[in-house]
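Sequence, please.
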């Protein structure tokens, strides 16, 4: 199950740096996770300082 970034995202980029498969990129208003690339490891959620990443 892939993860998603909620509206709580502050666009700090910590999640992108934590993702081992580079599934996270900066979107227009916040960072976004490519569900097709995401391996559901949870590294991004652990690296988010505002807990904006949840399982989809």
């Amino acid at each position: 199950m892939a993860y998603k970034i909620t509206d709580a995202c502050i666009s700090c980029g910590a999640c992108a740096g934590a993702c081992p498969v580079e599934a996270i990129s900066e979107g227009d208003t916040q960072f976004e996770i490519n569900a097709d690339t995401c391996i559901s490891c949870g590294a991004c959620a652990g690296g988010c300082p505002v807990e904006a990443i949840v399982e989809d």
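Strands lie at 3-5, 24-26, 31-33, 53-55.
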